[in-house]
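Appendix B. Raw example, untouched.
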Amino acid sequence: MTETIRLGEVSIRVTRKDVKNVHLTVHPPNGRVTLTAPAATRLEVARAYAISKLGWIRAQQSTLKAQAREAPRRFVGRESHYLWGRRYLLSVDFQNAKPAVTLDHKRIRLTVRPGNQESQRAAVMHEWHKSLLHQAVPPLLRKWEERLGVKVERYFLQKMRTKWGSCNPAAGHIRLNTELVKKPKDLLEYVIVHEMVHLLEASHNDRFVAILSEHWSQWREARQELNELPLGSEE
């Protein structure tokens, strides 16, 4: 059961689950707030807890609001684009040929037909990003399936505004934010491990933290680094 607590301008989504402790989270990139509480917790108790943490919530939201954000991309020549944590300059070639993207040590070269619109160039780049992730993700899934003793039935790539990834434990599916292609590869791996641990433990409870800590001891540092990197531009 999910309910919402409103404390002034702060909206908190409350979910009751089979957990021992209350977990309060402020999610990047826009400061969405969730509170997961033990199943028997009354809403009044959850509200009192949230009120006690209101200063912390606002501080976290302010940090996210001040976080560096990429300027909107227009997909034009000499524009900066990031790939696996490195900055590249974009060059755009207009040719009567099939749209394509290639990479060298300094530049990303985007080839599109004359008259191609910004939205079409963005779509070509997004498909290229997905192709790179489709190369990078399966080996990491195989690696961590063996280590964790789980099976990912399917994975999906999509643009996600509020999460780096998500998991459907019942179906064995995970979803990954395509923005991860812009981040260092070790952070992509961290997100994959995080979501795969949910196949063992659906909640962010003590058991989840213990499993994640056993297999990725530096997960807190990885999470902090990921959330401090520039966010995608607002659309």
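End of appendix B.
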